[in-house]
Amino acid sequence: MKKMYLLGILAAFVLAGCSSAKPAESSSADTSKAETTVAGETTTAAVTDSKNTFTVGFDQDFPPMGFVGDDGEFTGFDLELAAEVAKRLGKEIKYQPIAWDAKDMELSSGTIDCIWNGFSIQGREDKYTWSKPYMNNEQVFVVKSDSSIESIEDLAGKTVEVQADSSAEAALKENTELASTFGKLQTVADYNTGFMDLDMGGVDAIAMDSVVANYQITKRGGEGFTVLDTPLSTEEYGIGFKLGNEALRDEVQKALDEMKADGTMKTISEKWFGKDVTTLN
Fold this sequence. Notes:
3-stranded antiparallel β-sheet, D-Maltodextrin-Binding Protein, domain 2, alpha/beta, 10-stranded mixed β-sheet
């Protein structure tokens, strides 16, 4: 009987101990806290909210808008603007390099919140929810300075290179009259590779954004390459959000408008271009 009595007490003690703690309870996805009750005391722990991160998708080989700096860190005009916007929104900035021809997949899957990297609005007006345009740009042709090519007419029979799924490629698809005169039109993954191809004589010209072309030429000492006078097309840069995501677009636009008004955009622009090239009204 004594053994049975002791076993009964021991069993009751074990059961009491097991029931004194509840498993952690996570809140639903649209809340930011979880409560855990231990020994009758309730504690509250913060749960990471993905909305506290602002993830910018960009081409890491597109200087000076977004690229890998000499220190190995991501940098660039657009990325600095994005970082300031994130700061004003109370969000953590995250730079997400993407393959340019996979940008739509990255945006639709939610991997990135926006595409912000010298992103041309023209020809894509209905594919994204756009910010207001903030900078002008042209698509131009770059050739070697010692080339016999002096005008777009001289590109007849020549090999022209363009970044895949870029605004320059889209402009050439529209301007079939010009493109049909080329000996060959080929694509390249990024313009750093394009400049190497041009320098080594693998191609005769590159069709690309003027802002990137001028930066690349300046970086190479301002010699060896020439931009043809006649542009392929003119356009404006904007920030592209997933179609219908007006809430985030409006938040970002409000921050940009404030940055324009208080001179922050001008300061960042002067750092990268030596003058204020922004056009935000």
